[in-house]
Amino acid sequence: CPSTCLAFSRTRKGLVLIGEIILCLLTLICFGASRSGYAGLAAVELVFAALVLLAWSCRLPPRLPLLHWGWTDFTRCVIGAVLFLITSLIVIVGHRDGAGIAGGVFGILAGILLGYDAYITLPTRQGHTAAPT
Fold first, then answer.
1. Entry pTM
2. Is-contact 53 17, C-beta < 8 A?
3. Angle CA(78)–CA(25)–CA(31) in degrees, nearest 5?
4. What is the sign, positive or negative, of the torsion defined by CA atoms of 66, 122, 58, 107?
5. Residue 59: phi, psi to the nearest 5?
6. Which residue range is the domain that position 104 belongs to?
7. At 36, is the secondary structure helix, strand, or coil?
8. String of b and e for 55-75 (b: at least 16 CB within 10 Å)?
9. Same domain for 66 and 97?
10. Euclidean distance between CA atoms 119 and 133, whole angstroms
11. Is 53 within the bounds of a domain?
12. d(CA 20, CA 26)
């Protein structure tokens, strides 16, 4: 799996997932250092992004056709983007400590990147294949 993992990380989707992981990690560190209690969102999104990166890198979707990977990833991205944007705006408006504001800014960036990931992942943009009957 190492050669396929490296090859996938060079694709657009791989780079976006790596960017999500980095932004979630920065947000987690900043929220953990601040007095806000919103570190759980960043931790959950970090784990989900890492699992999706691992699944796509190891070419797991063709092996598990029971799960519609496109809609699953799209749903993860939309929910994460909305939650990050709302939470980050609440933290930026409500907290005055530097770590909280930095975490809010990284959270907004993560929300924007998750929104972009949802846009490029949208299954209806990628065409349909006929279902076997």
1. 0.84
2. yes
3. 90
4. negative
5. 55, 45
6. 38-121
7. coil
8. bbbeeeeeeeeeeebeeebbe
9. yes
10. 30
11. yes
12. 10
